[in-house]
User: Which sequence fits this backbone?
């Protein structure tokens, strides 16, 4: 744990170094750790790793000269429930006082580097103000997502009314701690046609499932297969920062997978799942038997079905290659984005400085209308218009016209013709579950895989997680929902792994998501589908607001811009099981000129 009093404890493996914190507005683009992925081709015999290579490990027993100790404050300087960043010379530490006890932890969220002192302290954990990850203040362990790593926990002692913190210099500089994991000791790893755990899909759900198994001491064979050419990467960043290179997006370096014996098959497409014989068949004919299976195939982007849909330079964004190609072709040219949801609007925002013109085509009358409502949608639309984005609303594409095979014009149903050299299509996605149709694994009418709270499908030993599932949302009366978001995929991957190990875990995470446009971030928590009213506090025109989405007399979701940490605060209240009533919010808006949010953390509702 990086401490140096009494008996030294082993320092846990630390993998990535966080880059210097980017300026506040650029939080969404800051790196979450660089790796150097190489594609591991899925071609029969080459499907294995050489496990001799090991990650460099820090020395397990830091010597006194590797440690730094300092008095950081007087015991009375902090009230219960307060947090403070303190300086130890080699780096900062987050000091927390809770129930009369002091705790010292890493001060930055390992996900994107957010200052945790600006987060929310509640129920023995601190929640990140940017994206909602939660860390246990007693251990530093990651308890809710996004992100993969935990915080270092430092030693605290109190002498003569002064609070002293002692930490290893290395831990202070690394700012993240990868939990101790088992290694694979299976003699057949990498060679035989059978595996203990097979994970189909290497997004957040698949990766977190594999890591959780190893963290829980599982040492048998794990195979993770993906259609992608790359090792697992940070997909939400694709549409927010289109020219980021694949190696900058990697969630873990390739040495990590080798060290822990997580075998990754890239460009490996599963075509059939035989649940009776517990076997999958890949497109190239390779067969693999499994004992436990996680299905996390994600979704496939919808494409246009209009006349001319086959012309060149029309893209959906699914891979780093797609994103990079769009940026390259868009420079100084005319871009049309079809769809004003999260992906379309993020792409439009990113391309405004690079393209000659950016136009957005959308069926609804305002962007994000179903998700954020009319008023918030209109305020965001204005921000885009101020950045030279042109909107064509309440219409759709009827034809794509080409010149010498390449896109030249987009014709709308309103008969308007828009000049276009590049078209990006962001009109939603469908679950990538076609390969399961004859498998006996249940799919609903839309192609989603229904699971229970333990992420189990209708077939014993087969679990599913991520964008392709519907699951019971605990705090909305177990309503079956599909929530295709990054944080939720992490949480579901963890629950699936725990239940593969018979731990009887249930999914209880409160959804949390974010988007970034023009250096501004919008945060959102809850599940707002079918809201019937929106209560807004703050100034929509200034884009400094919080919007409460209600249904009946209950708050079911909250969105904010420049109003931190209210979304994390609401997420904590909902996670604690307390309902927030519409009346409370109306009183808050009526009386709050200061933005005081103490009412939210009150006990009764």
Assistant:
């Amino acid at each position: 744990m990086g401490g140096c009093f009494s008996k030294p404890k082993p320092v846990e493996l630390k993998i990535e170094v966080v880059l210097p914190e980017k300026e506040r507005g650029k939080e969404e683009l800051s790196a979450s750790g660089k790796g150097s992925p190489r594609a591991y081709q899925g071609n029969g015999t080459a499907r294995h790793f050489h496990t001799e290579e090991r990650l460099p490990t820090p020395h397990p027993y830091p010597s006194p000269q590797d440690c730094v100790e300092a008095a950081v404050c007087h015991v009375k300087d902090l009230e219960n429930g307060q947090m403070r960043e303190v300086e130890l010379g080699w780096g900062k530490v987050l000091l927390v006082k809770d129930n009369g006890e002091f705790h010292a932890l890493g001060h930055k969220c390992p996900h994107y580097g957010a200052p945790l002192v600006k987060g929310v302290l509640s129920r023995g954990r601190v929640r990140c103000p940017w994206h909602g990850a939660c860390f246990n203040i007693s251990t530093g362990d990651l308890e809710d997502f996004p992100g993969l790593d935990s915080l270092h926990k430092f030693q605290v002692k109190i002498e003569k009314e002064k609070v002293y913190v002692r930490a290893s210099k290395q831990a202070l500089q690394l700012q993240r701690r990868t939990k101790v994991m088992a290694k694979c000791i299976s003699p057949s790893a990498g060679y035989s046609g059978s595996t203990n755990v097979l994970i189909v899909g290497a997004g957040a759900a698949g990766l977190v499932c594999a890591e959780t198994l190893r963290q829980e001491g599982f040492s048998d064979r794990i195979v993770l297969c993906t259609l992608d050419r790359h090792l697992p990467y940070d997909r939400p960043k694709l549409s927010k920062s289109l020219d980021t290179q694949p190696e900058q997006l990697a969630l873990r370096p390739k040495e990590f997978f080798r060290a822990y014996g997580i075998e990754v098959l890239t460009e490996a497409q599963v075509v059939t799942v035989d649940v009776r014989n517990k076997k999958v068949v890949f497109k190239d004919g390779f067969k693999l038997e499994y004992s436990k299976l996680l299905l996390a195939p994600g979704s496939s982007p919808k494409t246009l079905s209009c006349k001319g849909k086959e012309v060149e330079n029309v893209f959906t964004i699914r891979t780093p290659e797609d994103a990079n190609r769009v940026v390259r072709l868009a420079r100084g040219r005319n871009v049309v984005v079809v769809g004003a949801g999260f992906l379309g609007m993020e792409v439009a925002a990113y391309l405004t400085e690079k393209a000659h013109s950016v136009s957005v085509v959308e069926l609804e009358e305002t962007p994000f209308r179903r998700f954020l409502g009319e008023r918030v949608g209109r305020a965001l639309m204005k921000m885009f218009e101020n950045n030279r984005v042109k909107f064509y609303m309440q219409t759709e594409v009827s034809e794509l016209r080409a010149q010498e095979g390449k896109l030249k014009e987009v014709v709308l149903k309103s008969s308007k013709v828009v000049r276009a050299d590049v078209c990006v299509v962001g009109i939603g996605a469908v679950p990538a579950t076609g390969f399961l149709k004859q498998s006996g694994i249940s799919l609903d009418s839309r192609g989603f895989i229904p699971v229970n709270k333990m992420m189990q499908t209708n077939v014993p030993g087969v679990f599913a997680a991520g964008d392709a599932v519907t699951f019971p949302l605990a705090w909305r009366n177990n309503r079956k929902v599909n929530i295709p978001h990054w944080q939720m995929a992490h949480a579901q991957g963890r629950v699936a792994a725990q239940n593969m190990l018979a731990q009887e875990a249930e999914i209880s995470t409160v959804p949390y998501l974010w988007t970034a446009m023009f250096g501004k971030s919008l945060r959102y928590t809850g599940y707002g589908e079918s809201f019937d009213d929106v209560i807004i506090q703050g100034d929509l025109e200034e884009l400094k607001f919080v919007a409460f989405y209600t249904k009946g007399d209950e708050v079911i979701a909250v969105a904010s811009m420049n109003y931190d940490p209210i979304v994390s605060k609401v997420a904590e209240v909902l996670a604690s099981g307390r309902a927030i009533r519409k009346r409370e919010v109306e009183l808050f808006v009526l009386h709050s000129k200061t933005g005081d949010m103490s009412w939210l953390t009150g006990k009764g509702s």
Summary: Confidence is low (pLDDT under 50) at residues 1-26, 28-60.
